[in-house]
Amino acid sequence: MNDQMTEYVRKQFPALKREVNGYPVAYLDGPGGYQVPETVIAAVTHYLVDMNANVGHQFETAQNTSVMIQDARGIFADFFNCSWDEVVFGANMTTLNFALAQALVRQLKPGDSILITELDHEANRGPWLQLEDRGIDVTEAAMDINTCTLDMEDLKNKLLKKPKVVAVNYACNGVGTISDVQNIIRMANEVDAITVVDAVHYAAHGPLDVKKLDADFILCSAYKFFGPHIGVMYAKKEILNRLNPLNLRTQQQAPPFMIETGTLHHEGIAGACAAVEFIADIGLKFGHEFDGQTGPLKGNRRNQIIAGLRLFESYEMALTGHLIEAITSRISKATLYGPVAGHPRTSTVSFTYEGYTADQVAKYLGDRGLFVWGGHFYAIRLVEKLGLLDRGGLVRVGIAPYNHGTELDRLIEALSDEDALKRFVETQS
Questions:
Q1: pLDDT of residue 38
Q2: Where are the alpha helices (DSSP H) in 222-375?
Q3: Alpha-carbon distance values, 178 to 34, 207, 219, 223 (Å)
Q4: Which single residue of 94, 201, 341, 351 could bond 173 by disulfide (Cβ 3.0 to 4.6 Å)?
Q5: Angle at the Cα of 362 (from 358 to 363), degrees rounded to 5?
Q6: For the chain (length 429 residues), average pLDDT per consecutive 10?
């Protein structure tokens, strides 16, 4: 992203005007949820003011809501590169994954196995672990604690057991590791396993292509890429059609409706669409360098989305490299956790600070308007395997497209001032 685009992006986010203790807030907590642009706020407001109604009625606002939801499926079909009837909306990714797990278990029998990983967020572990009380054998592929990557040999060995389901993340929200999901899906397909990919963390950092990946289910959360708190799932039509999800007899018994229980979060769907359109708008305005690679941008929302995400990725990774180098060279008491240089990763950087818990460091930084997160971020198995759970977990910094290099300079300056950190912690005790 050039300077012109950076300024354009930053102007879209009213939250950036916030101050804490006289400091402008730097939202460096992107992995926990992005801030939203004006267009998303406007879309939610427009729905609530001009369209608010339930579907299935004969009057105008109800019919307009139905049209909006159908249009939303088309927008997310471009986001995933799938057909509209493979787009499922839900309260959040976790709820959708629980619904999926409960649908799949009705086709399993005691003794069948499911493969999860140690690198995953709990939302792609817990729903499957819950099935153990139904006699399902849930095993986990190990992670390499030195590189925070999946142990691919262990995963291959676990696949020899021919699991019925393989659940894996695209990118780890705890440390930013991007896994080779295409290869994992290929191996899972060889043993006829159903594949479930948690793309919650990845979706903000790179384009999703379900046709290329050939996954059966991919889940994400719109609030991780500029939208409201709502879950979205790609469900391969022929697979979903074979399932028997828990639902009401009034539910349409066809994809994608059959797994959407109750009234959907209409205003959230409207805002989520605006979030995708925001990404596409950036791609159209500034992504001309990708025009020859993705195909024409004008009139093609899918190509615009890809260009926008690639622009964001390029910008974020330049700042990520700067941050990692600065922490390594200037913060002697910091220990970084994550993939080694050269391994695919997102712009998430996690570390510990000798002598202080992650919570103490995060509160100190927050007092200076530097919003980061300390703890396990629901990637509790990862933090446990790293031996950090009893020590308070990790400090996590996430770089988003609206962040600026000067904000990272403030972060490094604050982390370098150990005397200030010590004084702050003492005042909190």
A1: 98
A2: 237-240, 266-286, 291-294, 301-330, 358-367
A3: 19, 13, 16, 20
A4: 201
A5: 120
A6: 88 98 97 98 98 93 97 98 98 98 97 98 98 98 98 98 98 98 98 98 97 97 98 98 94 95 96 98 91 80 96 97 98 97 97 98 98 97 97 97 97 98 94
How many Cβ atoms from other residues are within 10 Å of residue 132's Cβ? 11
CA 125/CA 141 separation, integer angstroms: 11
* Residue 289 confidence (pLDDT): 80
Residue ranges in 36-90 assigned as alpha helix (H): 38-50, 60-80
* Alpha-carbon 301 to chain mean position: 21
- CATH superfamily of domain region 3-36+304-428: Aspartate Aminotransferase, domain 1 (3.90.1150.10)
- In whole angstroms, give the CA distance from residue 139 to residue 186: 19
What pLDDT does residue 429 have? 78
- Burial class of 129 by CB neighbour count within 10 A (0 to 12, 13 to 18, 19+): middle
Give the architecture (CATH level 2) of 41-275: 3-Layer(aba) Sandwich (3.40)
Give me the DSSP letters along 95-157.
HHHHHHHHHHGGG--TT-EEEEETTS-GGGTHHHHGGGGGT-EEEEE-EETTTTEE-HHHHHH
Q: Are strands 23-24 and 19-20 parallel, antiparallel or unpaired?
A: antiparallel
**Are residues 306 and 281 in contact, defined by beta-carbon separation less than 8 angstroms?**
no
Residues 104-125: b if buried by 16+ CB within 10 A, e if exposed: bbeebeeebbbbbbbbbbbbbb
Peptide bond into 256 cis (omega under 30): yes
The pLDDT of residue 292 is 64
pLDDT of 3: 83
Say how far apart CA 364 and CA 76 lie, in whole Å: 39
